[in-house]
Specification:
There is one protein chain. This protein has helices at 30-35, 59-74, 90-100, 130-148, 172-181, 185-193, 197-207, 211-229, and strands at residues 3-10, 15-17, 24-26, 44-52, 78-84, 107-110. The protein is α/β, with parallel strands linked by helices and 245 residues long. It folds into two domains: 3-110, Rossmann fold (3-Layer(aba) Sandwich); 130-229, no CATH class. A four-stranded parallel sheet has the order 4-1-5-6. Strands 2-3 form a two-stranded antiparallel sheet. Helix 4 crosses helix 8 and helix 6 (185-193) runs antiparallel to helix 8 (211-229). The longest helix is centred in the middle third of the chain and has 19 residues, at 130-148. It is elongated, with a radius of gyration of 27 Å. The two termini are 36 Å apart.
Length: 245
């Protein structure tokens, strides 16, 4: 089996924020991008041609890329060529290579619309972590339950009021009828979570219990306790959601 030659030129795919809240700049090297590859990736060779935004591409650099691709295409040990590139001028580079590189060897250009500092980036620091994703989803669900099923500090129902952003003012009779079915908001949360039989079946099959419901209720209780104590809720995640490792 041959190897893949990766030629890196910069672009958003290689960018990250210089400082939080400031603009992104080319920062990831070819070696950095190589480390993002999965362990079972085919053999690769990485060659860094430049590290610039796509909009800064010049004719000289463009022709340099063309020459490096041409050389790789002539190498019998290379099965294919991948070029990481800024999206502003990716199309122009692809067009030049299509016109000037002979043969049938695959040449792929790839870029990104998100920097490595952005949510949704597929490499570190946002590599797939199922346990972390599960915890974040449970925290979000618990927070939404507190938002849409408002409670008093002691965990009872807080009447809906237009002044608080609700559509109508809840009457005492309506609140009493609600309490007949769900004495507290937490009871309503537990009932709602029981309406997802497929999630429950998968959890019980894999983990031996309905862990999604258990975890959401545990976080819901922790958020309720934070309201009572006046201390901010603290995520169990480290680092907390939204903070890069």
């Amino acid at each position: 089996m041959g190897k893949i030659r990766i030629l890196t030129t910069g672009g958003t795919i290689a960018m990250r924020e210089a400082e939080p809240g400031q603009g992104a700049v080319p920062a990831l090297t070819g070696a950095d991008l190589r480390r993002f590859l999965p362990p079972d990736a085919p053999p690769v060779e990485v060659e860094e041609i430049c590290n610039i935004p796509g909009a800064h591409m010049t004719i000289d650099l463009l022709w340099q890329i063309r020459n490096r691709v041409f050389a790789a295409a002539q190498d019998s040990d290379v099965d294919g060529i991948v070029i990481t590139h800024g999206t502003d001028t990716l199309e122009e580079t692809a067009y030049l290579l299509d016109l000037t590189i002979p043969g049938e060897k695959p040449v792929v250009l790839t870029g990104a619309m998100r920097t490595s500092s952005d949510l949704g980036y597929e490499g570190p620091p946002f590599a797939w972590d199922p346990d972390r994703r599960f915890e974040i989803r449970c925290e979000l669900d618990a927070a939404f339950f507190h938002l849409y099923l408002p409670s008093t500090p002691d965990g009872g129902w807080r009447p809906a009021r237009i002044a608080d952003g609700h559509v109508v003012d809840e009457t005492p009779a309506q609140l009493a009828a609600l309490k007949e079915h769900f004495p507290t908001p937490r009871d309503a949360v537990a009932y709602i979570l029981d309406q997802f039989p497929i999630v429950r079946q998968k959890d019980e099959s894999t983990f031996g219990s309905y862990r999604t419901k258990e975890r959401i209720l545990a976080i819901y209780d922790a958020m309720q306790e934070a309201q009572v104590s006046g201390r901010p809720y603290r995520s169990a995640l480290h680092p907390p959601p939204g903070e890069r490792p």
